[in-house]
Amino acid sequence: MRTLKSLSGRLFCVVACLTLVFSFLLATPCYAKTAKEINAEVNSALKLFSQHVKGGKEFLEAAKGVLVIPNVVKAGLGVGGEYGEGAMRIGGRTVEYYSIVAGSVGFQIGAQKTNLILVFMQEEAVKKFRASSDWKAGVDGSVATVEGAKFTKLVR
């Protein structure tokens, strides 16, 4: 009997957590941003980066490509997720749009917004990234900060 109560209590907690997370995600307006909106947010994120990182402007100018996904929303309560839309810039010009989607399970609670900036210093890395239809970070040890994330090209 004690095992049944324990199991039903755990099940209730899992269902409650999932309900809260999905309520948060569904309460957020769901619409695809326009190219103009994405570019404006990318410009702001890059400006912040250049202002707050010593040598940031020079670093970005030396890059062969920069993937910027501003205002990535992360939320979780036991089960979590994140989503954002951004752009790949080459030579300071937007060449493609991308989204990031990630999910996780484990001890977590809260919500936050963050800017994600991936800087490609080699031409070959940019070509490989752009050539793939879906690119997963976290598989490669060089991208540990977005473990389990999936990048997808957006059609604009």
Radius of gyration: 19 Å
Overall shape: it is: globular
The secondary-structure class comes to: alpha+beta
Per DSSP E runs of 2 or more residues, the count of β-strands stands at 4
Biggest pleated-sheet summary: 4 strands, antiparallel
Mean of residue pLDDT values: 77
Distance between the termini: 57 Å
Can you walk me through this structure?
With 156 residues, the chain is α+β, with helices and mostly antiparallel strands. It has one domain. The protein contains four helices and four strands. Strands 1-2-4-3 form a four-stranded antiparallel beta sheet. A hairpin with a 2-residue loop joins strand 1 and strand 2. The radius of gyration is 19 Å and the shape is globular.
Task: Record the SSE blueprint.
Layout: H1 2-27, H2 35-52, H3 56-62, E1 65-90, E2 93-120, H4 123-131, E3 134-136, E4 150-154
Antiparallel strand pairs: 1-2, 2-4, 3-4
Summary keywords:
single chain, 156 residues, alpha+beta, 4-stranded antiparallel sheet
In short:
With 156 residues, the chain is of the alpha+beta class. The protein has one domain (32-154). The chain contains 4 helices and 4 strands; from the N terminus they run H-H-H-E-E-H-E-E.
